[in-house]
Amino acid sequence: MTDYLRRFPICNKIAETLKLNIKFIHVFNEYNPNTQIYNGYNALFITNDDMVYGLGDNFWGSLGLGHNKSVQSPQLIPKLSHQGIQRFINGVFSFGDNFYGQLGRDIKKDDYFMKPENMMFFNDLDITDISCGFAHTLALTANGQYQDNYFERTFNVISLIGSGSFGEVFKVEDKIDGEINP
Predict the structure, then answer these.
(1) What residue segments make up the domains of the chain, in order of their start?
(2) Among 3, 10, 59, 78, which has the minimal tally of Cβ within 10 Å of its Cβ?
(3) pLDDT digits over 2-14, tens only?
(4) 2-153 sits in which CATH class?
(5) β-pairing verdict for 93-97 and 71-76
């Protein structure tokens, strides 16, 4: 594991004794509007004793520490520790920027969450994989169905405008600003 960690500069901030105890690590990018770039300065990792730590830029609170200040040394994330996490996919607990509703939570203007919270929408589903990104959360169930509740959380359907071989077109109202989109 320590050879693998050398690939990521952020891991240089983890003490060697702690590195020896890491079960797995998730290094990820985060868009920083101040620099207008995506960077690789965030890491979440789990140790062999099931403790979860985070460090990095944390601009949107995406480390789940309850704030959005930069974290230059590993910080314990109590709410995620001892949860038996097998990988980080933001599928059961979500945190970070929610501007597009990608956390599976209700959308509010200028919304981001700095502490992990359970995504209730996915609790009764047999999720086998989740893809999370800057503006989406998409879950695949064991029977091959996908779940993406972005549409339902974002729009109120006013009327069906048309349908055809490529799907249906709706007249909708945006739940955030009330704008009508034909």
Answers:
(1) 2-153
(2) 3
(3) 788 888 889 999 9
(4) mainly beta
(5) unpaired
End-to-end Cα, the chain, rounded Å? 53
Tens of pLDDT, residue by residue over 33-85, are: 777 766 657 899 999 999 999 999 888 788 888 888 999 999 999 988 998 87
What's the token pair of residue 157?
A: 């359907």
CB 104 within 8 A of CB 123: no
Q: What is the 3-state secondary structure (H, E, C) of the chain?
A: CHHHHCCCHHHHHCCHHHHCCEEEEEEEEEEECCCCEEEEEEEEEEECCCCEEEEECCCCCCCCCCCCCCEEEEEECCCCCCCCCCCCCCCCEEEEECCCCCCCCCCCCCCEEEEEEECHHHCCCCEEEEEEECCEEEEEECCCCEECCHHHHHEEEEEEEEEECCEEEEEEEECCCCCEEC
Quote the CA–CA distance of 102 and 112 in Å, as a whole number.
Answer: 10
What mean pLDDT do residues 18-30 have? Answer: 88
Token pair in block for residue 180? 């009508």
User: CA geometry: angle at 124 spanning 166 and 83, to 5°?
Assistant: 120
- Please give the Cα distance from 126 to 113 (Å, whole number): 25
Q: Is 89 left (phi over 0), alpha (psi -120 to 50) or beta?
A: alpha
